[in-house]
Amino acid sequence: MGEINGPHCVPEGGVRSRLRRAGSSAILFMGSASAVRDPLIGYGATPVAVDKLDMTAGPLTTDYPFECSAVDNLIHDIGYPEKQVAGVAIDMSEDITVSHNSIYNMPRAGINVGDGCWGGHIISYNDVFSTVLETSDHGAYNSWGRDRYWQDSTSAINTRVAAAPGIEYLDAMKPITMANNRWRCDHGWDVDLDDGSTNYVFTNNVFLSGGLKWREVYSRVGDNNVFASAGFSIQLWPTNNQDVFAQIENLIGLDEQSATGLGSNVGVFVVTVPVGSQAATDGFLPIDVILEFNNQSVASLDDLNTLYATTTAGQKVPVGVHRNQMDIVMTITR
User: Fold this and answer.
1) What contacts 24+ positions apart, CB below 8 Å, involve 189-193?
2) One CATH from 2.30.42.10, 3.40.190.10, 3.10.450.50, 3.40.50.720 for 246-334
């Protein structure tokens, strides 16, 4: 079901629908495996050797959903008897919009994306809660990649990508945008980016319980998200992954002032620095406060974002930091 209005879609309902007690997934966008170049089907499947791969980006045929949408639906209490289900499931599809849906009482995921083929999805303004009620090791939003670049160990992925740079984007050609959603998972992560889920942008999401998990993938950006309970966790980190998530916020309140030794609500407070992240490589530490960027004062995140946008990739930038009751200057590479 869903609002099917694209060139590869069949028109069937799904706007402002109530979908409940479905035996399997309520809304499913699924293409044909014949459209995938060198598909890796199943966790234990043996990937095609790099020198034997089809190195053409994107789909092989047009046998898949494209520019389809599921909007303003109420989806709940599904999965009788099947449990490996989702309120909205997306596999082998491109440019799917899932927006303004309320999804709850799920045995497994509320929204699931089963591969990196071929991205461009917009997941926005959804309220997804009471999920993973009858299973575990999953998320309110769950995804896999297992694209042409992927293998089941970080060292193997590093070797494979080094042998063919750019291979990681042959299938996940476009970013999946996750914006303005509210997520809650009961037995897992609020958002579980598993097994090669590459090319994501997270903006203005609220994580109510299990937090956000990033596994061994590439090009994920997290900005201005709120974590009410568990935070951000990383499982494996390939080299040169181009992820961006330094956990920072405006310095606010007596507790943060006391922790940093500052007497006013000024600057950008570095909450955590994930091991292996670019922030760690640059030399930031937890409880740092950024007060200057490129020799300009930083009073808030808005200041930092504005100044960051004026610099260019590769530029050496001085950053004024308050650390251990002292002001220091670091130099980072933009």
Assistant:
1) 189/138, 189/139, 189/140, 189/213, 189/230, 189/233, 190/139, 190/140, 190/141, 190/230, 191/139, 191/140, 191/141, 191/142, 192/138, 192/139, 192/141, 192/142, 192/143, 193/143, 193/217, 193/220
2) 2.30.42.10
